[in-house]
Amino acid sequence: MKKRSGYVWLLFALLALLVIDGYYQVEASAVPIWQTQWFLWRIIAVVVILTGVFVYYYFEASKKKKSELEKFKLKMIEEQESQWKVIAGELHDSIGQNLSAINIFLQQEIKSSETPPARITQASSLVMETVDEVRRISQRLYPKQIERLGLTVSLEAMIERIASASGIKFINNIENIDGALSRENEVQYFRIIQEILNNTLKHSGAKTVTLTVKRSVMFIITELSDDGKGFEISDPARLGFGLINIEERLNVIKAVYEFSSEKGVGTRFKITVPIK
After folding, report:
1. Domain total in the chain
2. What digits encode the pLDDT tens for the residues 138-167?
3. Domain hosting residue 246, numbered range
4. If you write DSSP's letter for every residue of 206-242 in order, what string do you get?
5. Among the three residues 77, 100, 118, which one is the final residue of a domain in this structure?
6. For residues 78 and 86, what is the distance between their CA atoms, to the nearest angstrom?
């Protein structure tokens, strides 16, 4: 910013010199100043300087607007994560605990009776299923296991859950990336992989998904590909909100990505994330 501001001051200095030069030319000229060749060249110089100033401020305004938009998007993502964390905590700590307490009462009733009613046994089983579902929803909303188990194990656990629920075969090669990112960026990275896998489940029809995560000195390089039906990249309707959300999160962690898809072949992501 200081360097560019210096350019503007230089333009203003040149403009001031032209004004001073013009004053002395008017004083020394024997004919009207506008009839001299000097006047034509100075007018051209003034137009060029003013155009330069205008272009500078136009690009600075565009840059400022873009920066404000990026900050707004970042704030929205941070607020979203904060809200999800609160909701996940309420589900786990409040609803989950209440359901567990209900199940304890039901178990006590079952144990105190030699032949407990089938409805009570069924109710207990249904409560436990609901507790498990609440925990799964809570984990999807905010992956607390990252804090407890680390990012690497959390990724492996997520893939294991998806594989068991969907029947998709996963081929994994995940190196240890714990501590490579800040805690906030670990959550964002986890969300990115989660969103890509969700899109794969919804749209690809894939039977096999390959995930490779490698850690170098400066980057985490992630490659994720499937053997699904793919689609034409030129079709903007297929890119949808999911990819937009992924792009916003990639911007948050200063990552870049390559994305390709071909009908009948599948889809491929390659993500490069700078290490903290």
Report:
1. 2
2. 666 666 778 788 999 989 988 988 888 788
3. 150-276
4. -SEEEEEEEE-SSEEEEEEEE-S----TT-GGGTHHH
5. 77
6. 12
Is-above-0.70 flag for pTM? Answer: no
Residue pointed to by tokens 């898809």 = 261
CB 142 within 8 A of CB 84: yes
DSSP for 99-146, please give it: HHHHHHHHHHHHHH-SS--HHHHHHHHHHHHHHHHHHHHHHHHS-THH
Whether 21 and 42 have beta carbons less than 8 Å apart is answered as yes
Which of 48, 77, 106 is a domain's end point?
77
SS3 at position 253: coil
- CA dihedral of residues 9, 10, 16, 17 (deg, nearest 10): 160
Report whether pLDDT(211) > 90. Answer: yes
Examine the pLDDT at 210 and tell me if it is beyond 90. Answer: yes
Task: Give the side-chain half-sphere CA count within 13 A for 235.
Answer: 8
The answer to the question of residue 86 being in a domain is no
Cα dihedral 61/63/68/69 (nearest 10): 110
CATH at 169: 3.30.565.10
User: Quick one: tokens of 257?
Assistant: 């990505």
CB atoms within 10 A of CB 143: 24
Cα–Cα dist 18/258, whole Å: 52
pLDDT tens profile 59-102: 888 888 877 877 777 677 677 766 766 676 666 566 767 777 78
* Residues facing residue 98 across a β-bridge: none
